[in-house]
Known about the structure:
Chain A is an alpha/beta fold.
Amino acid sequence: MMPRLKSLTLSSLSTLALLAAAPAGATTFTISWWGFNGDKLQDIIVNPFQEMCDCEVVFETGNNGDRVNRLQMRSGAGVDVIYLTDSYSQAAIEQGLFQPIDRAQIPNIDQLYDLAQAPQGEFGPAYTVGRIGLVYDSARVSPPITSWNDLWREDLAGMISLPNITTTSGPMVVLRAGAHAGVNAFEDADAAFGALAELVPNVVTNYNTGSEMINLFSTGEIAVSMTQDFTLNPLRAAVPTIEWAQLEDGEIAVLNTLNIPVGSENVELAHQFINFVLSAEIQQQLAEQGVDAPVNTMVDLTPEQASAWTYGADQIASLHRIDYSQLNPARTQWLDRWNETFGM
Amino acid sequence: MTNRIHPVLIAFTILIYLFLLGPLIIIFGASLSDTTYLTFPPQGLSLRWFENIWEISAFRRTIVTSLQMAILGTSIALLIGIPAAYALNRYRIALPGWLSTLFVLPILVPEIVIGFSLLRSVTVQAGIPVWYALLIGHTLLVIPYVIRVVSASLASFDFSIEEAAVSLGSHPAKTFFTIVLPNIRSGVIAAFILSFITSINDVSVSLFLTGPGISTLPIQLLAHMEQFFDPTIASVSVVLMLLTIIVMIIVERTLGLAIVAK
Amino acid sequence: MKRIAGWMLASPATLAITLLLVLPVAATIGMTFGPSDGGPWGIVQPYANFFDSAFQRRVLWRTFEVAGWVTVISLAAGLVTAYVVARCPPWMKSTLVVLAVFPLLTGVVVRSFAWLVLLGRQGMINEFLLWTGMIEAPLSMLYTPGAVIVAMVYIFVPLMVLVLVGVLENIPEDLLQASSSLGAGPVASFVQVTLPLAVPGLIVGAVLVFTASFTSYATPHLLGGSRQMMMGTFLQQRAMVAFDWPGAAVVAAIMLAVIVATVLVMTRLARRLNPMAT
Lengths: 344, 262, 278
């Protein structure tokens, strides 16, 4: 009987030795992002960058709020470069989690539209500009959606998923609910949440990540959602009948930024990475393959390629900007009311 | 006594078993599908989703981390749990009664509470790196299983044999390894397997302790499920089930399955 | 001498659990008490705040409801199944036990995922119902309390079956024979002999299932979503998304209190109801 125990011990010990021998030597470069469009980003950005830097790239994935919180818990360490929407990078800057960018190390910044070069002072640049609007499955929704107010339509009962309040777009739902009730949500939150309560019968569940929302569409759970435009191409790949609603009451601008946390262990590589992502060549590929709208002025798109994007100086100028100094504090106060509205 | 079970009860039992096994069979079928979305029955057969597991580096990494946590965590738990179980049985009178209560606390306290508390104290306050924090969590999680199962097999061990050996001049430590350990062998193996399975399936503790680049397989599965609804999840599930079947066969061959049911 | 040897052997485990479990959890609970002048409720103000919110009361109540239903359904299904399994011929019994152990060893994420596939709008159940013509449009079944309950019952029935098979097997055969030779029918034997003897086992099973479903995370996360939050998912949201650690600590403390109270009360009850006890 003993030999069996012995061989068991031996085999587990040897497995242990095998597992403990972690890949040594190469630098690990950690990127924090959403995990959205992972396959394409692997091809366009990660693989070429890995070759360039002779490092191994690993990831932390999750939605904006989750990743900022985790970064704060680690006092800004553990991650070398972080992708965030501007609303969350603003919050992280206020918490002192980012270091200023050395623009001398990122020459490609000069090729960007003005608005993307330094959206948040000395901190990171924006690598894409997008908008928040509505999408719907034209096979299941008629007549088409043309206004934010259409969300309240009775024929959309049990068909909508909204972004949770803890995401970038979530607070915009409250702002639009305020507009539906004819008030400014910052001044009269009661009326805004009153309008939101009327929306409840139409909502199936709310989502936390863009990928989760696409799942909800592709499995047929929902037919309408509010989202950022970078989800449009993967959405259409999953459900070809998806349309981006042409809203008469306007769309909201979102800038996605790249930043270097204070605890980054590869600051130089992080600058290289940002420069790489902003280069005309990469921005061109990202736009052509439907990943992100370009902010590099050297990128040239056909009208067809550009149709999904916020593209060109004029269009960028036409979007509503949000005042995050007002919105970020309100978000915390709105969380409980949001829970009470949707979680009862 | 085996006769006279009412047919309605038998029918009900069959239904329960269909309910228990049906979904697992469906996962198995879906994993072989050649479509990019989940369907059952599969429209064409392919193993591409099994290949996909190895192509996605996050799965490769988390499988390794999960195995590391399960094997190392269980080994550490055995190293500190076997002496504790031995002490509890051998010196029961000399030790306070609350000690055995203390040893079951990791089962009593909800896992998610343990995870959150470890995040606060171990990761944030003590600043222990992610990998070690995860290992601490997994070790803690399985200590009670080790102590309970090993205790159960020590309970039927006759300590007078050990005393006889010692009185005949054998060193106490040597006696432990030559007399006691071989007698509780099956208990140790059962403890290892039970702990391994508990650790590899854990969600609630790992949920709070994972960090950049370091995650466990169940947490990665949850993340992947939010991003993609493709058959990769089904094929990972099948691999996990096959692993379970292998473990069960080993258990059955060496000890008999009754030990798991305890 | 014995005391020293005993302590020496037990000390690593004692230290590990004290330092890494007792102290951290105690610190979490310590965090839930506010300053004594924090409000009309003094140091328990954070708890008053918890119960003051209709939403948080709803989350707690929903968790009780779901865990309660899961426990009751699992008990009923588990008892019948275990009764039949325990009376099967030995070869069949061991097969049936293996078939119940197997799902138990498969992870919670995998088993919850199975129900995500089954209950979806384009899932198998909807497709089957559409095919039979029983419904005309797919039903929305995900993200409801029912979905969470079904998946949890699925997860916990095997546990219940195993516990109860063990209990029913230990009931002495002579008792049942005695009862039937005295003229009791199978139903009467079951109600008057088997059931009272099985009560302690039923309580153990019920406590296991109730505490596990009350504190679960993965199943309500996947099948309940953000609109059917339970204590586990709410704790995660408070801690990781809202970054409100004092709030998360209150949720943790309430969960712990419910679990400890359940275990204490039920083990006492089990002891009292055990007819075999002296």
